[in-house]
């Protein structure tokens, strides 16, 4: 397993770099959003509403988003998601001051949450296309390691919010999204395109060519049936839900305390 070899591929290096920059932006976004809301309202219930607005899109749209991304150029999805988020977060410092903060913050949280619901599956699907199959294990390990280590960027994000203020943090946040989009642009154009290689030869022989007009909801429903019939997958999802239920409230509790 060689991380250096994986990083020698421009597409993978750009994807990893974009992820690190994006994680830093996410740290600014999440911390500033919670602290500004708490300072403005002094109400933990409003902070909870903002957190729910951030996470609800992923709960509701995850399956259809994954099915829709399978029909699109994932590279364009990632570029568009970063550009949209980079513009959306500017609404808070520009229009969300004073009494307008809560409605603007909830709207932005929902919008960025929806975009992230699409960019997450796109990022996961693009990764195997950035390195040869023999180096995929190294790439997956490094990408996971990078995502985990980048959580330490929340320390820096907290410092930015503390020293420069929440509104300034969103300007920086916007720049990180735009930087991430530029890094994705450097990924070769052929990366991210949906191709028949993603279906097995057996499927093609038995079912014929892929039906690109198939309903997105039908694909999402098929995925749900598959998960329901796989005890191992259900167990992993149950653990994830339990961990999230126990840890996510800390995002509201700690700032309040």
What's the short version?
With 257 residues, the protein is mainly α.
Structure description:
This protein is mainly alpha-helical and 257 residues long. It is built from 13 helices and no strands. It has helices at 3-7, 10-41, 44-69, 74-88, 91-95, 101-126, 136-149, 153-164, 166-185, 201-207, 216-228, 231-247, 250-256. Helix 2 (10-41) runs antiparallel to helix 9 and helix 3 runs parallel beside helix 6. It starts with a helix and ends with a helix. The model is unreliable at 196-213 (pLDDT under 50).
Ordered list of secondary-structure elements with their pairings:
Layout: H1 3-7, H2 10-41, H3 44-69, H4 74-88, H5 91-95, H6 101-126, H7 136-149, H8 153-164, H9 166-185, H10 201-207, H11 216-228, H12 231-247, H13 250-256
């Amino acid at each position: 397993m060689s991380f250096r070899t994986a990083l020698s591929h421009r597409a993978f290096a750009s994807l990893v770099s974009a992820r690190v920059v994006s994680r830093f932006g996410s740290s600014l976004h999440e911390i500033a959003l919670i602290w500004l809301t708490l300072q403005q309202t002094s109400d933990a219930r409003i902070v909870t509403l903002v957190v729910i607005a951030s996470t609800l899109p992923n709960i509701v749209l995850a399956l259809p988003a994954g099915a829709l991304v399978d029909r699109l150029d994932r590279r364009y999805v990632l570029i568009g998601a970063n550009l949209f988020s980079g513009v959306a977060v500017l609404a808070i410092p520009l229009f969300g001051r004073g009494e307008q903060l809560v409605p603007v913050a909830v709207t932005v949280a929902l919008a960025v949450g929806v975009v992230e619901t699409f960019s997450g599956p796109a990022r996961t699907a693009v990764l195997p296309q950035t390195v040869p199959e023999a180096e995929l294990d190294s790439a997956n390990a490094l990408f996971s390691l990078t995502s985990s280590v980048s959580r330490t960027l929340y320390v820096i994000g907290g410092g930015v919010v503390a020293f420069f203020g929440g509104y300034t943090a969103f300007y920086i946040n916007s720049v990180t999204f735009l930087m991430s989009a530029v890094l994705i642009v450097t990924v070769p154009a052929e990366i991210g395109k949906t191709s028949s290689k993603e279906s097995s030869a057996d499927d093609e022989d038995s079912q014929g060519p892929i039906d690109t007009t198939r309903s997105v909801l039908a694909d999402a429903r098929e995925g749900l049936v598959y998960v329901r019939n796989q005890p191992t997958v259900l167990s992993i999802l149950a653990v994830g839900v339990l961990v999230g239920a126990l840890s996510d409230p800390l995002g509201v509790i700690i700032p309040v305390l």
